[in-house]
Design brief:
This protein is 52% helix and 14% strand. By secondary structure, it is an alpha/beta fold. The chain has two domains: 134 residues, 3-Layer(aba) Sandwich (Rossmann fold); 69 residues, Winged helix-like DNA-binding domain superfamily/Winged helix DNA-binding domain (Arc Repressor Mutant, subunit A, Orthogonal Bundle), CATH 1.10.10.10. The longest helix has 15 residues.
Length: 212
């Protein structure tokens, strides 16, 4: 079962999410919160696998809550579920550690897919959010990171699969290597590219057009 925490300050949104998730046989709602501060406490006590996080909330907003959750519980996946698709909201959320970014207009099947993908370590971004993220994630043209040669052939293969949305387990199976080895390659890729997580690595590769 995927343990899901719901965080939103609108009761009707919570009700809708609750009704939908109760129909998913592989998901279980372990708690609800109406602001970021409540989310922090709920994560601490309920230990969810995935958090559906609104951005605009009283007391503590979703970006700060995401940042603090990832700092204290890096294994918890946070999916932003919001009405905002502009770049001023997308990039801070991803930088805070969000594993996904979707709009509240998302249909039920796509939301379920996003939750399952996050649980497996993959990233799902709304097309508008992805477009803003790529356009805003810029680097200097002479930055040595823009040269894919800084990566080994195996690291390039791993990064290409990350960009395709594959989890570590799927990458390991595809390349016939141990999942622990994949994790080592991912750490090396992030270090060489001076990036913080898999999402940033995928966006950077897309920006460079390495696998397009």
């Amino acid at each position: 079962m995927i343990r899901v925490l719901l965080v939103d300050d609108h009761p009707m949104v919570l009700k809708g999410l609750r009704l939908f998730l109760q129909t998913q046989k592989d998901m279980e709602i372990v708690g609800e919160a109406s602001n970021g501060e409540g989310a922090l406490q709920a994560v601490k006590t309920e230990r969810p696998d995935v958090v559906l996080m609104d951005l605009s909330m009283p007391v503590m907003d979703g970006v700060e809550a995401t940042r603090r959750i990832k700092a204290d519980h890096p294994e918890v996946k946070v999916i932003v579920l919001t009405s905002f698709s502009d770049r001023d909201h997308v990039l801070p959320a991803i930088q805070a550690g969000a594993a996904g970014y979707q709009l509240k207009e998302i249909d039920a099947d796509a939301l379920a897919m996003t939750i399952r993908a996050a649980h497996l370590g993959m990233t799902q971004l709304h097309p508008e959010a992805a477009s803003h993220l790529v356009s805003q994630t810029t680097h200097e043209p002479d930055d040595e990171r823009s040269n894919i040669q800084v990566l080994t052939p195996r690291e390039r293969e791993v990064l290409q699969l990350i960009t395709a949305g594959k989890s570590n387990k799927e990458i390991a199976a595809h390349l016939s290597i141990a999942e622990k080895t994949v994790k080592t390659h991912v750490s090396s890729i992030l270090g060489k590219l001076d990036l913080q997580d898999r999402t940033q690595a995928a966006v950077y590769a897309m920006k460079q057009g390495w696998f397009g």
